[in-house]
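Practice set, problem 2.
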Amino acid sequence: MTAVLPAHLADGLAAVLRGERVSWPSLGLEPAELLAVCAEEDLTGLVHHQLGNLPDLGWPQSFRDELTREARAGAARELLRRRELVTVLDALAAREIHPILLKGTPLAYTVYESPSLRPRSDTDLLISREQTDTVRRVMTGIGYSATNYCDGEFLFCQFELGKDDAFGVGHAFDFHWKISTQSAFADLLSYDELSADATPVPALGAHARTAGAVHALLLACVHPVMHHRNVERLVWIYDIHLLAARLSRAEFDRLAELAVRKGVAAICAHELALARSRLGTPVPDEVIAALAAPGREAERSASYLDPARRWNNELLSNVRGLPRWTDRLRLLKEVAFPAPGYMLRAYGLDGAAFGSGLLPALYVHRGVRGLWKVLRNRK
C-alpha cells in the first residue's frame, strides 16, 4: 500500500496541480527525493505539465531536467501501450467480446490533456462472467500468459494476463467480472448497467468503450475506499477533479440519486469534498449536502471510511456481505488455501517435480507468515 505523504508535501503538490506557485524550500526535499515521490505517486507527467505552464519558480534545474526526461520516456511508453490496447480490443471484438474499460486507462484517453499524464500499471476491463474462458483463449492466442494472481470466485472476481513486448515494455490486462473484490461493492454496478450507458473511446480504436460520465465518477469516488482503505492519493483525487469538472448540474443530480440508491452516498460526499478541498473541484454545495444528509453514515459502505480499518475488517466485511453460508465458507477457503498452482508459482516451484509434495508445508508456511503479519499489524 502506498505510504501517506507528509501533510506539507501533499499540500505543496496539490498546489502545483492547481497551477499555483510553490517555492522549492517549502517542499523540504532534495531533487532526487521529489523525483522518487512523483514516480511513486504517479505524478511525474502531471507535475511536469503543470510546471511547464508556470513561470520559472526557482526550482533546481537538475530536477526539471530529470523530470522532463522521465515525462518524455512515459510518453514513449504510452505510444506502445496504446498500440497494444488497440490490438487486444480488436482481438476480443473478433470473438464478440466487448469489455468496458475502467479506471486509469480510459480516463487517460478521455479526460486528461495527454494520455501519458495518467500512468497506470495495468488496464482494467469489465466482462461478463460467462466470457472468462473465451477471454483467456483469445489473450493466450496473442501471446499473453497468466500472472501469479491469487484467484477465486469470491476472493478476487478477476484474473490478470500479461506479456512483455519487443521493446521490453510490460503490458498487463486485468479482467473483472465484478466491480470489486469487496462483497459490499461487488454488485455496485453490473456489466449490463455500465454497458447501457457506455461511451466510446475513439483514441483506442473502434471497439473501445468506457463507463458513462456519471458512472465513471461514481467508480472514481468509491475506488480508493473499496480497494485501498481510503488512502489519499493525489492522482486519484485528480481523476475525480477532471471527471467532476465535466459534469453538468443535471448529471450531478443523477450522480447524487444513484449514489443514494446504491448505498455509497457518504463515500461520494467524502471524496467530492476532498477533491474540492485539495484541487478546487467545482462541486455544487447542494450535491454535497444531498450526499452527506443525516443518516448516510448508517450506510453499510460508510464503515470503509474508517481510517483505522485493517485487513481483518476487510475480511469480516467480505464474509458478512455474502448472503449464503456456503459462499462465506468458500471465501474463507479461498483465503486460507489458494489454488495449488498459485502456491507453487509464489514459491518458485512451478514445474518442479517435487513441488506438489511440498504443498502441505507451503500452506503451513504461508499461514504462519500471514498470522505473524496480522500480529505485527503489517497486514
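Problem 2, part (b): a different protein.
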Amino acid sequence: MTALILQGRTDSTRLPGKSLLPLEGEPLIFRVMEALGIVRCDIRILACPEDCKADFSPLAEKAGFAISTGPHDDVLARYCIAIRRFSPDWVIRATADNPFVFADAAGMLAEETSALHADYGAYAGLPLGAGVEVTSAEALLRAGRESTGKEEREHVCPYLYNHAEIFKLHRPLAPRKWQGSKIRLTVDTREDYFRAQRLYKLLGEKTTGLERYWGSVILEFAE
C-alpha cells in the first residue's frame, strides 16, 4: 500500500499565509492537492498541525485527501503519526508550496523505488519545487525513533539520505525530459507567488485536461 502524504501549514515567515493564497480561483494548497491527485497511490493524506485543521479540512475533502494532524515543527513526527494511523508500506512525500510538482515524475520515481526495494528515492536535476521523495514507511518510522537533529525532524528525510550505511538509497539523475535544475517552481517568496500566478494562468490557457501536470509540459512554459 502506498500513501501520498502532503505536509502543509498556514504560517510562513517569508510569505505569510501562502498555503491559502489564491491561484486561479483556488487556494495554493488545493492546487497542489489537485496536481497530486493524479499520482497513482492507495490513499492521499494531508498532514498538518492541529491549528490548521479547520482551514484545510474542507479543501482536503474536496480534493479527496484524508486529514492527519501532528506537531507543528516536528514534521517527521507528523509523518510517523500518519503512517501509524493508515499503515502504508510506501510513502510519497510532497510539500504544499509546490503547485507545479511533476505528477508523472512522481509516479515513475515511486515505481522505481519500490521495485528496487530502496528505503529512499529522489530524482536529481529537477527544477526546484518539481519533485517528491519516496520512502519506505519502515525507514521513516526508524528515522522517527532515532533522529534527534532539528533539521532532520523539520525536513523529514535527511536522516535517511545522510545515513547511506543504514539505508538503501535511489538518487538517480532525472530523465532528460524533466531536467531543469536552474528553474525555480516552488512558492516561497512573494516573487515566487507572482511567477506562479503567471505560469498557472498560461498553462490554463495553453493546455487541456491533465497536460498541465506533466513535467515536460510545465517546463515548456516555465523556461
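Answer key, part (b): The mean pLDDT is 96. The CA atoms of residues 159 and 165 lie 11 Å apart.
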